[in-house]
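Standup notes
- DV: blocked on the single-chain target, sequence here:
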Amino acid sequence: MSILRMPAVKAETGHRSHASIYSAVSAGLFTKPVNIGQRAVGWPSNEVQAINAARIAGHTEDQIRELVKALHAKRTLVAAPQG
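- DV (later): unblocked, structure below
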């Protein structure tokens, strides 16, 4: 897995602008970015790929919202300390 910066996310998704990505985030149709520096964010490549696959498969917006929720939940599981 890699972290994609905005130009790569736009290229992968077909979005034309930063605003369209952030509108999708606000609508629950795209995952929130992760901080990778003081003034830098990116998106895990596996999340971008999963959302693209759902769109290609013809999933509804409600189904994509559920996918986004699941992807966010998976982030917390991966980040949880093992013990």
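- Follow-up: The beta strands are 3-4, 34-37, 40-44.
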